[in-house]
Design a protein that fits this description.
Length: 495
């Protein structure tokens, strides 16, 4: 609760600084209209850091709310069903992420194109892009529904998921896959709204859906005793509601683009551009998810206690990483709009200011994790051994969030400019070449008669090393500046 109050006050302060809620007139101060409150933000004018922060804060709160989906699932399952059920939900997550990479690609491609066309004031191109995104999402949802239902159990068996939790894992995965359309449309439509500079609408709709998810979680599990399946159904229902609300918002933004049936027809020029820009990010997510799947196999070898600890750590990690992801997305929109407006001077200025703010935020989070980590872990389970294990391992990761602040911010700038390939290659290197081999290598080197599978600490040490290397590589390629030549809307020279 104190965290939510803190973010709420910070959000309000930013809105006042931005001028939202009140406006000055000759007669004095008047309340702004709802239309002005939810108006898209033009990030090609004003102080860069103010625009970035004002855009990031509501998105950060929204991302935190979205993270509550999985976190509340874990808390309810851990408290009402038990540690094995908690391990089941966590074991399913890497496979879930792997099967949803199509949506990640469409969302990123949509965000880049929308932000650049919006910045360039190209209405027809903007309308075609949004229409093609809606159609692509429908096609992708059908594919994922079929693949998810068929592949969930075989993938879990391939990973040697313990027999004690595999049925729960399968049930959880299949329900989420069959109901994936809500999640897909919410994330992609949010990407479009953010590309237009509207991060507030998505926040409001997500908060509504999050409350619904929490209520349904508790009702389905504690009252109806539906177990793991209950939290999956709750998530699907809540995500579908948020998607409907986002679609309703887009259909009302006719002053910016046209949302007509003719724009839903697939056009090769736009659909291929969405895929070209989004595919690298989709591949990046696929590589990351595949690495998580491979490492999950190593995690499973350490037993249910380590599996459950990993679930708790990843839930807390999700919140700790939210500012970095939020700043990264904000930098993508900021860079996209300014590249579209041919303002490279503002892009570079905003990149520096935004990254410094992100690093400062992550440094604060790192200190909080080190100081209060034990209390955070106690939210998920009453098992003292599990709380201690999770808190100690979380401290290994803590400093890595500062490195990820650099990676996410500068990668966001490069993606916004249209260079989605460089972040993909960096992700491939740090994940495939560094993280996975290092985890298995250290596990092999630390084997003893008492620890035949090695030390479980290697799971998080390898992650920390890969994060730090990713930050270094991202900084190097950002400084090289090849990303400046990737604009969709023509020359990106300064005005």
């Amino acid at each position: 609760m104190p965290i939510l109050i803190y973010h709420g006050c910070f959000f309000y302060a930013i809105l006042i600084n931005r001028g939202i809620g009140t406006k000055n007139t000759k007669e004095g101060v008047e309340c702004m209209t709802m239309k002005e409150l939810f108006a898209p933000s033009d990030m090609t004018v004003g102080k860069p850091w103010e625009k970035i922060v004002a855009f990031t804060i509501p998105m950060l709160i929204g991302n935190i709310a979205q993270q509550l989906y999985n976190t509340v699932d874990s808390i309810v399952i851990g408290k009402y069903v038990g540690d094995n059920a908690l391990a089941a939900v966590g074991s399913a997550s890497p496979i879930l992420n792997l099967l949803l990479v199509l949506f990640v690609g469409i969302s990123v491609g949509a965000g880049v194109m929308v932000s650049q066309y919006f910045g360039a004031r190209q209405r027809k191109e903007l309308s075609m892009t949004i229409g093609n995104c809606v159609t692509l999402t429908a096609i992708s949802s059908i594919i994922i529904m079929i693949l998810g239902a068929v592949l969930s159990r075989p993938l879990l068996e391939m990973l040697k998921t313990p027999d004690s939790i595999i049925d729960w894992c399968t049930s959880y995965l299949v329900i989420l896959m069959v109901g994936c359309a809500g999640s897909a449309y919410y994330n992609i439509l949010c990407g479009i709204l953010r590309g237009l500079g509207d991060s507030i609408s998505a926040l409001i709709y997500l908060l509504v859906a999050t409350v619904i998810n929490i209520v349904l979680d508790i009702v389905f599990v504690s009252q109806f005793h539906m177990g793991v399946a209950g939290v999956a159904y709750a998530t699907v229902i809540a995500q579908a509601i948020s998607a409907v609300l986002c679609m309703w918002r887009l259909m009302r933004m006719t002053d910016i683009f046209d949302f007509r049936p003719k724009y839903l027809k697939m056009k090769k020029q736009y659909s291929m551009e969405i895929i070209r820009l989004g595919l690298p990010s989709g591949i990046t997510q696929a590589i990351f998810s595949m690495a998580m799947v491979i490492v999950q196999s190593l995690t499973n070898s350490f037993g249910e206690m380590v599996i459950a600890a990993n679930v708790i750590i990843m839930r807390v990690d999700g919140f700790a990483m939210m500012p970095n992801f939020s700043f990264g997305t904000a930098m993508t929109t900021y860079a996209g709009q300014n590249v579209g407006a041919r303002r490279m001077d503002r892009v570079e200025q905003g990149a520096k200011q935004g990254t410094l703010i992100a690093v400062g935020t992550s440094t604060t989070i790192t200190l909080l994790i080190v100081i209060f980590g034990h209390h955070l872990m106690g939210i998920f389970t009453n098992t003292t051994e599990l709380v201690t294990l999770s808190a100690n391992m979380m401290k290994i990761l803590a400093v890595g969030y500062i490195a990820m602040a650099i990676t996410q911010s500068l990668s966001g700038v490069m993606r916004g400019a249209g260079d989605t390939m460089t972040p993909m290659w960096i992700s491939m290197v740090v994940t495939v070449v560094i993280r996975v081999p290092l985890a298995y290598g250290l596990a092999f080197l630390t084997r003893t008669p008492e620890l035949p599978n090695g030390r479980y600490q290697v799971l998080w040490i390898s992650m920390l090393v890969s994060w730090c290397m990713g930050a270094l590589l991202t900084l190097i390629f950002y400084k090289k500046g090849n990303w400046k030549k990737k604009a969709l809307t023509g020359s990106s020279s300064e005005k």
